[in-house]
């Protein structure tokens, strides 16, 4: 009887903790180096590959399965690439450069943007995932301003190419100013 | 007869070695012996490319940034010709090559630019050494001369045009799968060359078009920002935009590199930047 009472107390405490535990707000605790842009809730650009869509694809054709696999690989690429984008902190820590010129780490991220563009040109249906990536990047204050502006430029350009409405997307004014003067796809 | 011809040939060879028949490079730009041959060859190719450039969609705002009537190859070449006279290598040490011509020299105009020491430069990309020595002399009221390319040059203007290049300009790790002599790599180097060329301009407080201290942002605390709409960064950003558009048959990665470089340069512009007089400063 005594043991049952102790177990009941422990279960009650555990339950109370789970109920009262503060929930993490993904937008508040957003960290460039920890979270993928695709795991962040975004009400503006619609969900891309939700569970419903996946279920409907179970009995799909080999082409459809290949398409889903390609989309999944692309998402994985975006997730791993996102954490490779240069942050302000990483550039400041780096001592082997000349800050008066474009830092090498910043220029090297051209490979990421080039690969994404190549994949989009081959398969336009991947655009929504790319737009989420660009949107998260443009909004991320931890990233280098120049990179954020390139993301904003790509967000605007690819939304136009794929005819996706991004009018409700809010790009920071300073980032938009730079994005408007750099070359792009249009 | 053969003896006379032999003597004539020997005379020509010796005069040539003395520099009497010295031939200037493209746009009159000479290379110091401190520039490695492979770098010299690449830069010569870069300069040759300038003459063939022909951009479309050039706006009056673009021209305002570079103070040229147009962006034709000949105009761009002329821009470099007036601002870059010598290219020196990474091993060139301006301090050991300079000689005091006059101490307590009176500079007029005597207004000073905000002069910044170079940052931690382990990898040199490109610097305008001539303009830096001029500003150094102006600050210390000393007139210098510099020994470069076997000549002694009086450093009495920001337009002395001595540009120092380093390994960082040719660093192959920055842009994968793109050879060092590819078009985008040439464009990136040329953008840097035009940036440094602009440091040969300006007068008074703006002599040498110095960079401003960044009060906030990515480079806060460093002299890596721009307060002039026609300064080196804004000029570079404008050119990179046109280089991007002219980069035919370039890969998406190469185009992205030009886009990022343009974005980096544009991000340096400080709010409230104004156009400044580009006329260079001279003292006699």
Tell me what you see in this structure.
The complex is a heterodimer of chains A (186) and B (284). In chain A, 59% of the residues lie in helices and 0% in strands. Chain A is an all-alpha fold. Chain A has a domain at 60-186. In chain A, helix 3 (62-82) runs parallel beside helix 7 (127-139) and helix 8 packs across helix 9. The model of chain A is unreliable at 23-31 and 46-53 (pLDDT under 50). Chain B has 284 residues and is an alpha/beta fold. Chain B has one domain. In chain B, helix 2 packs across helix 7 (183-198), helix 7 runs antiparallel to helix 8 and helix 7 (183-198) packs parallel to helix 9. At the A-B interface, helix 5, helix 6, helix 8 and helix 9 of A face helix 8 and helix 9 of B.
Short synopsis of the structure:
The complex is a heterodimer of chains A (186) and B (284). Chain A has 186 residues and is an all-alpha fold. Chain A is 59% helix and 0% strand.
The amount of helix of chain B comes to: 25-40%
Low-confidence stretches of chain B: 15-22, 117-122
As a whole number of angstroms, the C-alpha radius of gyration of chain B is: 20 Å
Find the structural class of chain A using helix and strand composition. Answer: mainly alpha
Percent strand of chain A equals under 5%
Give the overall average pLDDT of chain A: 81
Helix content of chain A: 55-70%
Number of distinct beta strands of chain A: 0
The amount of beta strand of chain B, in percent, is 5-15%
Helix segment tally of chain A: 9
How many helix segments of chain B? 9
Distance between the termini of chain B: 51 Å
Task: Please give the oligomerization state of what you see.
Answer: heterodimer
Distance separating the two termini of chain A: 76 Å
Structural descriptors:
heterodimer; A: 186 residues; mainly alpha; B: 284 residues; alpha/beta; 3-stranded antiparallel β-sheet
